Amino acid sequence: MTAHLQQKQVLITRHEPKASEFATRITKAGGKAFITPLINVACKVLDEKRKFLQQIEHYEWIIFTSANGVHCFFSALHRFASHMDERVKLATVGPKTNAALTKFGFEADFIPSRYDAKTMSVEFLQNRIVKGPILLVRGQLSGTVLQEVLGKNAVPFDSLEVYETTTNVNIKQRLQVILEKETIDFITFTSPSTVDAFVDLMPDYQCYLDRAVVCIGTTTAKRAKEYGFRHLLVPNEFTTEGMIQKIADYISEGTESYNAK
């Protein structure tokens, strides 16, 4: 099915340059995009964690849960170590993260059938014997599902934070102006941190709790629901393309509501 957004106005809250890429897809699908990057992402590795990069051959698997993690990992690897040991197996949470991996000349040995940490943790241990150790590459706000599952299954692992996410306070005025002057049909959130930032930057965020909110996956939808957003749309495929298709389906079907589980 070809997505068509019928000139609906869509607020994009993810960080650049991904915000502009998302906006281009929305425009091509017949929508009107308003870019307000609510978060900043910066690569950062603590000094005491650099040893993980310097002994990369020590790991059986490296698990990446985001494209940001991939980019920042290789940036740090090239800075603090020599190279990737090709004997180490790689896992990514989804095809977009794997696409980021291929830019560095590598391909994921494992991608789950559903692109979220819960499915990844189950399928990863279900279909293979993992002795470890494993290196989890993450941001400082990443969820703890994988850590908890590996711990329960007595699989040794190290956790390496390679980027930090902060609220983009400089976008506050633009965000408020757009929401006041434009009729935004859909607000999009691509991570729990974008939901947090929206709430932080909009003191009257309660005014938008009935607005159609499109979340990239169930984890993001859960965070939105915790703040009281009632009209949640979650795509079958946890990608921005899936989000656009979900909006198009919603428009064509004239759906009244969608409650995230």
UniProtKB/TrEMBL annotation:
Keyword Lyase appears in the UniProt entry: yes
InterPro entries listed in its UniProt record: 4pyrrol_syn_uPrphyn_synt_sf, 4pyrrol_synth_uPrphyn_synth, UROS/Hem4
Pfam family, one: HEM4
All residue ranges annotated as the Tetrapyrrole biosynthesis uroporphyrinogen III synthase domain in the record: 21-245
EC number from the UniProt entry: 4.2.1.75
Catalysed reactions, semicolon-separated: hydroxymethylbilane = uroporphyrinogen III + H2O
Name of the protein in question: Uroporphyrinogen-III synthase
Organism from which the protein derives: Paracerasibacillus soli
